[in-house]
Amino acid sequence: MNRIKEVLEEKGIKQVWLADKLGKSFNTVNGYVQNRNQPSLEVLYEVASILNVNPKELLKTTI
User: Fold this and answer.
1) Residue 23 φ then ψ, to 5°
2) 33 and 4 in contact (C-beta within 8 Å)?
3) Which residues form the HTH cro/C1-type domain (predicted)?
4) What is the DSSP letter of 51?
5) pLDDT, tens digit, 9 for 90 and up, residues 33-62
6) Which domain covers residue 47, as residue numbers?
């Protein structure tokens, strides 16, 4: 599970903008945001870089 949706909301960034920056379709990014699909580690690090956050901030911990 990831926190991409929460981080986008915190920063006021739209999924369309992120999709454009990643070079991926809106549907792909929406799948990540809705946790229907999970990005590869490479993509997760790219998302973190684009959003200027630590990759760990994009992961949900389940304890």
Assistant:
1) 75, 30
2) yes
3) 4-58
4) H
5) 999 999 999 999 999 999 999 999 999 887
6) 4-58
